[in-house]
Amino acid sequence: MERKAASLSGPVSGPVLGIESSCDETAAAVLAPDGTILAERVLSQIAEHAAFGGVVPEIAARAHLSAVSALVADALHEAGLRFGDLSAIAATAGPGLIGGLLVGSGFAKGAAIAAGKPYLAINHLEAHALTARLPGLSEKQPQFPYLLLLLSGGHSQCVAVERVGQYRQLGTTLDDAVGEAFDKTAKLLGLPYPGGPALEAIAKTGNPAAYPLPRPLLHRPGCDFSFSGLKTAVAQLVAAQGTGALAHAVAADIAASFQAAVTDILADRLANAFALREDASCVVVAGGVASNAAIRARLTEVCEAAGKTLIAPPLRLCTDNAVMVAWAAIERLGGLAPADDFNTPCRPRWPLESL
Ligand code: KG4
Ligand code: ZN
After folding, report:
1. Taking CB atoms and a 6 Å cutoff, what residues make up the pocket around ligand 1?
2. Rounded distance from Cα 150 to ligand 2 centre (Å)
3. Domains and CATH numbers, the chain
4. 3-state secondary structure of 33
5. pTM
6. Which of 289, 291, 325 to mutate to test the pocket of ligand 1 (most atoms within 8 A of CB)?
7. Span 203-214, mean pLDDT?
8. Residue 108 and residue 204: Cα distance in Å, rounded?
9. Which ligand is nearest to the CA of 180?
10. What is the chain's mean pLDDT, rounded?
11. How many Å lie between the centroid of ligand 1 and the Cα of residue 293?
12. What is the bridge-based pairing of β-strands 283-286 and 146-151?
């Protein structure tokens, strides 16, 4: 039987529930219509995937399934609400790992059907793109158009955010995502998963000029990224050290040299983005890699040189979370976009530009 979603088009008048399950975090959050966070919960699956050195899709889907119901109940309890009090229920519907997406959106659809509420299928990238507009996060809410640098384990993108629902991709990765490059390089250096934070920590004691690593696409036009050549260069460097564990000082020098190369690449790409979009009001960074202090400092410098502000939401809202999902739903409805049909599918690939 086909069920029609409760229709809603227009600003929400009550709280919104958001659910995120596209990768290795199960998350639920409840936001008031003005964006006030009433409750937020995130459950990381890092421990379940660590032994495999990366996210295992089947394990991720099962972990989401066993967590989502209690997590949502917990968030609603903290907010002092029941499903019937909500204005809308939103879930990430892509891009991401299909098993996890089906769990989160299936749960959201079921709850929306049972409670007679509208359902929204949220694009994960759009949610990252709009997070910085959450009221109270920065001194001044980012105004459209602005630039978004999404630097995570699954995505490396430079996007012009023109308005809610309208995004122009200025560049993306031609091979590995930047976080993936950090993770793979960390693995080569014998560091634990997820590699980004471990690599940053060891890089602090290393010499960034110790090894002249390649910087793919540097000084070339455009905003695309490429990291696989850099990773291969590190693999060759490590192999040249002979068998056995790397000496700590060597690993630290390689880590610092790798981080310096990535930082140069990102700074160069951002400078090109400014040339393409002189109308950008500011730059927003998102994704786990945005928490890297060396990268943040350098991107801040590039922004200052261009007379723009760099806005970095707090780390818990930079990485995968459900606050951004609920907020994207509020932004969409506020922009008079309609709620989605219960037949709306999940999409492992769902480019921002297709919205
Ligand atoms: O946004 P995120 O939490 O999840 C998704 O990928 O969606 O990003 C995780 C990625 C991992 O690749 C992790 O190694 C990287 O962000 N990361 C870092 C740092 N913290 C996390 N990379 C470099 N430096 C860090 N401090
Ligand atoms: Zn993400």
Report:
1. 23, 152-154, 179, 182-183, 194-197, 200, 287-289, 291-292, 319-320
2. 8
3. 16-131+318-354 (3.30.420.40), 146-312 (3.30.420.40)
4. coil
5. 0.92
6. 289
7. 97
8. 43
9. 1
10. 94
11. 12
12. parallel
